[in-house]
Amino acid sequence: MSDEFKIEIVNPEKSFLSKEDVNEVVVPAFEGEMGILKDHISIISFLKPGIITIQAKSGEKKYYVEDGIIEFKNNTLSILTSYILNLEDIEKNKLQELLKTAEEESNKPEITDQLKYLADQKVETLKSIN
Amino acid sequence: MASLDDLKKRIASVKSTQKITKAMKMVAAAKLKRAQESAEKGRPYSEKMNNIILNLSCGISDKEIAPKLLSGSGKEQVHLCVVLTSDRGLCGGFNANIIKKAKSYFVKLNKEGKELKIITVGSKGNDQLKRVYGNKIIENISFKNSKNANYFDAEKVGKIVIEKFEKEEFDICTIFYNQFKNVITQIPQAQQIIPLNTENDNQDNSEDDYEFEPDEDEILSNLLPKNISTQIFKAMLENSASEQGARMSAMDNATRNAGEMVDKLTIKYNRSRQAAITKELIEIISGAESL
């Protein structure tokens, strides 16, 4: 029996990615990284800035997300995110730019704790990519 | 009676107007295609978002603890209306239709003695509303510089709305936009986004037992602000498709009218040319006869 399931990533502008042959997905859930395999229980959770890793038959792919909501149901994983980038074709200066804005954001004096946490996560992830 | 020269000039000017409207129609048609595509591509996101929220709100049995964005502030006194219009004119009844819809809603609110606040998005709506409702407009946002409707603009509007809601500046929020049906028909819509209307969507509550991480409340309070931006974004996408559609048909009409006008003027021109020739002939003949 195959242990593949379906993944759909949509952002507000378009359907970003759709795959049927996924074995494992690791998402940066809000309370820690979460690996999802076939027949996972139905779950709704949301994401913090981080890396989504998709293990598929056609190879491993990594994506950078800033936020998002995931829903897993009937062996379909839907990820809604407002900002997603494929790590393969991301450009160096684009990364630097993102990092800079994230750092600025986290250094704002009037930021709330939660936003600060998210911005720090962003900085950390972006640095790890570099 | 206009002279021959005047007629000639008018024909030339109508013809050049026709060229412009024709070009605008072409541009609108090309943009419409893109706008329509992005409206269609944007649909899955807002649909999925809606589904998740419905599932979540079913899970919350106790309305008391539900986030305010879902359940409302408990009052209905102050209404915030977000009127989405275009930044450019020459698109037929597109802006007028939204304004008409919004105005009739304002009148209704007035009768009921409710307080009204307006946010206009797009400069055309602001121009038309500020004459009558100038003192009610609390914010005017314009995205003249962005080429297409994009999510970040929508998020900006969403953030303003949420900020004002958290400061308890209003109780109910409604957005006005044109829904794109087809090129000729755009339907002005009024959609309430705060508090969220979950009642009339009684689809199959298929008893999905979701696991939530973290718990429902926290997810909901994170999701609802996003949903507002998403709804606004959806409205913006529909609006931009509608705008191009309306402009296309308006410019199509204008081109046709210009064509008719050119025909009429040409006939008039030819007639008066003929009349002038006949007059000259008569003059020559009667001059010759008198000799």
Helices and strands, with pairings:
The complex is a heterodimer of chains A (130) and B (291).
Chain A lengths: L4 E6 L4 E15 L2 E5 L6 E5 L2 E7 L2 E7 L2 E6 L2 E5 L3 E3 L5 H15 L6 H17 L1
Parallel strand pairs in A: 1-8
Antiparallel strand pairs in A: 1-2, 2-3, 2-5, 4-7, 5-6, 6-9, 7-8
Helix pairs in contact in A: 1-2
Chain B lengths: L3 H56 L8 H4 L6 E7 L9 H18 L3 E7 L1 H11 L3 E5 L9 H16 L5 E9 L5 E9 L16 E3 L2 H74 L2
Helix pairs in contact in B: 1-6, 3-4, 5-6
Commentary on this structure:
- The complex is a heterodimer of chains A (about 130) and B (about 290).
- Chain A is an alpha+beta fold.
- Helix content of chain A is about 25%, strand content about 45%.
- Chain A has helices at about 90-105, 115-130; strands spanning about 5-10, 15-30, 30-35, 45, 50-55, 60-65, 70-75, 75-80, 85.
- In chain A, strands 1, 2, 3, 4, 5, 6, 7, 8 and 9 form a nine-stranded mixed beta sheet that branches.
- The longest helix of chain A has 17 residues, at about 115-130.
- Chain A starts with a strand and ends with a helix.
- The model of chain A has no long low-confidence stretch (mean pLDDT about 85).
- With about 290 residues, chain B is an alpha/beta fold.
- Chain B contains six helices and six strands.
- In chain B, strand 1 (about 80-85), helix 3 and strand 2 (about 115-120) form a beta-alpha-beta unit.
- The longest helix of chain B is centred in the C-terminal third of the chain and has 74 residues, at about 215-290.
- At the A-B interface, strand 4 and strand 7 of A face helix 1, helix 5, strand 6 and helix 6 of B.
- Strand 4 (about 45) of chain A pairs parallel with strand 6 (about 210-215) of chain B, so a sheet runs across the interface.
